[in-house]
Design goal:
This protein has 232 residues and is an alpha+beta fold. The chain has seven helices and six strands; from the N terminus they run αββββαβαααβαα.
Length: 232
């Protein structure tokens, strides 16, 4: 994934997008090329970046092709109208703001019934659903025959938030206002908490540099120059 430095998420921010149960695109390479399934996964401890556990239907051939894999999670995202990005004397074009995290690693298949049963219980419980734990064992065994466990052992994370961080604070404010008027509250909230403080800090830094520059003495008027202490 192409990630410009000013849109890059830290490892901590990327991991935050994977906390708990998340649904995303599991991408692997099969004999006929890339394969993808939209699937819920549970992020759990393990290694540097943790592991993602879940299950696939046994009739889905993707589980038969373990190995290198990619799990793509999408966070808030919305259309950004040109008017929200424009300023007096400077027009803009529409764009799309979004957050996404790519978790790469090794996909391992778990055909063991006990592993799969426990994974299903943990995933459901993480969403506050304990139905699986209350089912008769015979019913659980019957259901497990139709699925197979999968585990993505994450070795690399890449996170990207294209959320107008490179725009001036006043433009970001316009975008937030526009999103709130059109139902893009999740994107607006992320920008208010992250993009706006970052842009404001940059604007304050540049303002301070300009102020110091204007306060510098004119050439020939510095300390030690002939006119510096001329009190005639």
């Amino acid at each position: 994934m192409y990630v410009p430095e000013h849109f890059a998420l830290t490892s901590e921010q990327s991991l935050q997008a994977l906390v708990g149960v998340v649904a995303g695109d599991l991408v692997t390479i099969g004999p006929d090329g890339p394969e993808a399934t939209f699937v819920p996964m549970l992020h759990e401890p393990g290694g540097q970046f943790g592991v993602l556990t879940g299950h696939l239907s046994r009739i889905n051939p993707q589980w038969q092709h373990p190995g290198p894999a990619l799990f793509i999670v999408h966070g808030p995202g919305d259309y950004i109208a040109a008017d929200w990005l424009s300023r007096p004397g400077a027009t803009s074009v529409p764009t799309w703001n979004y957050l996404t995290v790519h978790a790469s690693g090794e996909l391992v298949v778990h055909p063991e019934p006990d592993w799969c049963a426990e994974s299903v219980r943990r995933l459901s419980a993480a969403r506050g659903d304990h139905t699986v734990g209350r089912l008769p064992q015979a019913e659980v065994d019957r259901l497990l025959r139709s699925v197979i466990g999968i585990e993505l052992r994450i070795t690399r994370l890449a996170g990207k938030a294209k959320m107008s961080q490179n725009k001036p604070p006043e433009v970001i404010g316009q975008v937030i206002d526009g999103l709130e008027r059109t139902g893009g509250d999740a994107t607006a909230d992320w920008m208010r908490e992250n993009s706006l403080p970052r842009a404001q800090a940059k604007a304050d830094l540049l303002a301070g540099i300009r102020q110091r520059h204007t306060q510098l003495p004119e050439p020939g008027e510095g300390i030690g120059s002939p006119g510096a202490f001329d009190h005639r």
